[in-house]
Amino acid sequence: MEAQGSEKVGKCCSVSRRTGAGNLSAIDVVYPGSQTTDVSMVQLPGGKFLMGTDYPNGFGADGEGPVRSVILSPFAIDTVPVTNESFVEFVQSTGYQTDAERFGWSFVFWNLIPESRFRQLVTDTVAEAPWWCQVPGANWKNPEGPGSSIEPRLDHPVVQVSSRDAEQYARWANKELPSEAEWEYAARGGLIQKLYPWGDELQPGGKHLCNIWQGEFPKRNTADDGWLGTCPVRAFPPNNFGLYSVAGNVWEWTADWFGVRHPKHETRDPRGPRTGSSRVMKGGSFLCHESYCNRYRVAARTQNTSDSSTSNLGFRCVRRQRASDR
Questions:
Q1: What is the pLDDT of residue 17?
Q2: Which of 3.90.1170.50, 3.90.1580.10, 3.90.870.10, 3.40.50.970 is the CATH number of 40-83+157-320?
Q3: What is the pTM of this model?
């Protein structure tokens, strides 16, 4: 039976709450004396790059292509996804309550839930993706529900956050969520039309360079890369721009509404459709597997509703230069 108030999006990638689920209104908060955290950022020059892909083994229906020329203005971007430690600082400073906390539940992947407590914690699963479980009490502080904690993983990316939560954090930190183009440009690290942030081979020399699924999805994860769920944000080497964790680990929210039609002509600082029901997510997660969902490729993308949260979804931020500062 499908979890109440949810619909499947991308199956292994994530699942979403239906827009308007619950009795919550959009939150728009202005934080007096907004803070800045010590999260490191890298300043990128922008310029021209080739966005998207025509990779034949990708997901064309996701709008991965066509390859198109994009020009970006300079911007700075977080070198790592926002961590649990940074999100703690935000919540302690503002008293903010996330969407998952307000709804009272969130989605957790089945193998992250202790077998001994499975029947106690899980109230429902998603019909077309039963590996996604509805767990009351799952939120950013308790990613797998009651009894779980972020204490031993403060250097892991925060998860169970909606895009609305991510936007509020960014506002507090005097930052913004990246556009899809900014995210992809930064993740490519200056490489031209490579599949991954490091090149075209997933495991060069047999070495794991990202946190994804090994084994048979969704039944068995051998964790050959060392991780069953999320990993520390600096667990694997950075790309050429100094960005960590841009492939696998957690999906990352962007500011763009999801659409599959892209202009073929060259564009400057492109953004997604003006309106929509879902936001673009980039980067793949620890649940992606080459036989089922190889969306850990740089140009891959998927979507989720703004109020949705899962155990494999986080974000990072950007800071754009004002025109007068360029």
A1: 75
A2: 3.90.1580.10
A3: 0.91
